[in-house]
Design goal:
By secondary structure, the chain is an all-alpha fold. The chain has one domain: Histone, subunit A, CATH 1.10.20. It contains five helices and no strands. This is Centromere protein X.
Length: 90
């Protein structure tokens, strides 16, 4: 990795595995640039999911309780509540 490159959000080997798992032809190739773009896309998706889940939880249980009650931890249910809208936005 060059000095001016940011570290990957998701390991490139994992991204490659996710992509190639459903390829129909074994000779399909993925460029490094494609992996970098996909890494940024996944990073944006995950950050947006967490942000929306936190904001939704604050609305649902109140700001003080959402930040203090459980140490700011999200539950699976917090993400499940918004996944439909999130997927349509992406």
């Amino acid at each position: 990795m060059a000095d001016d490159e940011a570290p990957s959000f998701i390991p490139p080997q994992l991204l490659l595995r996710l992509l190639t798992h459903h390829f129909k032809q074994d000779n399909t190739r993925v460029s490094t640039a494609s992996l970098q773009v996909l890494d940024k896309y996944f990073e944006t998706f995950v950050r947006e999911a967490v942000y929306r889940a936190v904001e939704e939880r604050k609305k649902r249980v109140g700001l003080a309780e959402a930040e203090e009650g459980d140490g700011g931890m999200l539950e699976v249910e917090d993400l499940e509540r918004l996944i439909g809208t999130l997927l349509m936005d992406f």
